[in-house]
Design brief:
Layout (H helix, E strand, L loop, with lengths): L5 H18 L6 E6 L1 H10 L8 H15 L7 E4 L4 E6 L4 H20 L10 H19 L1 H13 L15 H9 L23 H9 L9 H8 L6 H22 L1 H21 L5 H14 L9 H18 L3 H6 L3 H5 L8 H11 L2 H8 L2 H7 L3 E6 L4 E7 L2 H12 L7 E8 L4 E6 L8 H15 L3 E9 L2 E10 L2 E6 L1
Parallel strand pairs: 1-3, 7-8
Antiparallel strand pairs: 2-3, 4-5, 6-7, 8-9, 9-10
């Protein structure tokens, strides 16, 4: 390792743990690996320290390497939701930055241990992925490398079309039918409140037969899981294993996608507090304080072309802490029309830390931004909507929208469903012939035609029967229906 003072890092580790616990952070045992830049870039591209081979990972590695070599991206750390929690940190980080990164990691650790969205994911993913990679290599030898790659291509094309909360409500289709239709349940006769209960709905025997055969019993977002379980294609066990690995990894990484702003903001919020204590206690020198200020400013830099999750999440948690310390919430505060009184409002509640811990436990980015992004935060960060204006000789970035509620609504909409088109499986036996009917929940953004067509080709490969996708697209002042159909002859698009 290059110029890594392991003894001093171990000392810093002990101090950070003690300070973090003093602040109330609750984390799993933590392990650090200090690695060179190439290994860090490989982990970022392959998502895990060891993973199966796929051309997309090689592409991503070249992208990360190019950005790193040109100074556009400096990877400080990668943290995995595992027990013990595993973090990889760059050996070239200056010592003060290494300490900052370690403090940042412990806050990530706390977030992943305590956020409800990480609770159902498997924490042995590093070991699981390593075993899967070995199996995939054997499959390439046994069943042809091209066949394995084609299957992986199809799986990763819909890898995010899964149910992120599936483990919270596991049930078979029969259990779902019982929940939905309650055929086997009987309502006890009599009772004090019998007249308040709705009358049982009469269902004909013919309708019951149809409902018993309906698959899925109700629309589901778990497209990949549904295909694995119900595809008319006679899948071999190795094919199901490959798709299940892709699905399991997607479910593992989904909480990261759902909480990117919160997770990075939480880690930045706490690493600043921990570092301040370390400077106060003279563990780090004045020169190292200068390094820290420089790198920390880079972490929280404003970029008009994209949202910086470190900066936004940090600012929102800081704002929540301040507001709940001063009691700047609730009906009395919101309805106060005295500008001076509102500006100096301070009830001395000191409930800020308690509130941020509660928010950390329950929220994800979508609801976090919807509930806690304030005009104050937006204006302080210049968090406006920008656009590039063509000046003929160059493009100039200008502010296109500053009205804070419009900015907030735009951001909330961008976070809905974590940026993935919401595709529902409606019927796996469409037209009574095992055709697949899908429905796109239109949310102001139409599907991109080329991407949609290529994805449908992958779905058809996995299903091997005609596939239909219903969606909508704007047509002047109205919306018109659009249906994609793919079968052996190709793709047809119909509109009404």
């Amino acid at each position: 390792m290059k110029n890594v003072d392991l003894n001093r890092l171990n000392e810093a580790d002990g101090l950070i743990q003690g300070i973090a616990r003093d602040f109330g952070l609750d984390f799993m045992p933590q392990e650090f690996d200090v690695v060179p830049a190439q290994k860090m870039l490989e982990i970022m591209a392959y998502r895990l320290p060891v993973n199966f081979s796929h051309w997309s990972f090689g592409r991503d590695y070249e992208i990360e390497r190019t950005k790193h070599e040109h100074g556009y991206a400096v990877p400080y750390e990668v943290v995995f939701n595992s027990d013990p929690c595993r973090a990889y940190i760059m050996e070239t980080n200056p010592f003060a930055i290494q300490v900052m990164v370690m403090a940042h990691v412990y806050a990530h650790n706390d977030f992943m241990k305590n956020s409800r969205h990480f609770q159902m994911t498997r924490r042995d993913m590093i070991t699981y992925a390593s075993g899967a990679a070995a199996r995939f290599r054997q499959y390439e030898k046994d069943y042809d490398k091209n066949a394995v790659e084609k299957l992986i291509d199809a799986g990763v094309s819909i890898q995010w079309n899964v149910d992120p909360d599936k483990e919270r409500h596991p049930e078979t289709e029969e259990q779902a039918r019982e929940r939905l239709y309650g055929w086997a349940k009987t309502v006890p006769a009599g009772g004090e409140y019998e007249d308040l209960l709705p009358a049982p709905e009469e269902v004909s025997s013919e309708e019951k037969k149809k409902l018993r055969k309906k698959t899925p019993p109700e629309p589901t977002v778990d497209l990949l899981g549904y295909i694995i379980e119900h595809s008319p294609r006679q899948m071999m066990e190795y094919e199901k294993d490959i798709l299940n690995v892709i699905l399991t990894q997607a479910q593992y990484f989904m909480p990261y996608r759902r909480t990117k702003i919160m997770n990075e903001g939480w880690a930045t919020f706490w690493h600043e507090k921990i570092m301040q204590r370390l400077f106060t206690e003279k563990f780090l020198s004045a020169e190292e304080h200068g390094y820290y200020n420089l790198y920390n400013a880079r972490v929280k830099a404003h970029n008009p072309r994209m949202v910086n999750p470190y900066l936004l999440g940090y600012s929102m948690f800081s704002n929540i802490e301040d507001r709940w310390n001063k009691g700047r919430f609730g009906q009395a505060y919101e309805e106060c029309d005295n500008a001076n009184k509102k500006k100096n409002w301070d009830l001395g509640l000191m409930e800020g830390v308690k509130k941020v811990f509660n928010v950390r436990r329950t929220h994800m980015d979508w609801f976090f931004v919807d509930q806690f992004l304030t005009k104050e935060v937006i204006d302080n960060l210049d968090l406006y909507i920008y656009q590039d204006m063509d000046k003929h000789t160059h493009y100039e970035t200008v502010v296109a929208e500053t009205e804070w509620m419009k900015v907030k609504q735009t951001m909330v909409k961008s976070l809905m469903n974590w940026g993935i088109p919401r595709i529902l499986v409606i019927d796996g036996n469409y037209r009574g012939s095992l055709q697949l009917l899908l429905h796109h929940n239109y949310e102001s953004l139409p599907l991109e035609i080329e991407h949609c067509n290529r994805t449908l080709e992958h779905i058809f490969f996995l299903w091997e029967r005609p596939v239909f996708l219903e969606t909508m697209e704007p047509d002047g002042d109205r919306l018109k229906n659009k249906v994609f159909e793919i079968n052996e002859e190709g793709i047809e698009i119909r509109t009404d």
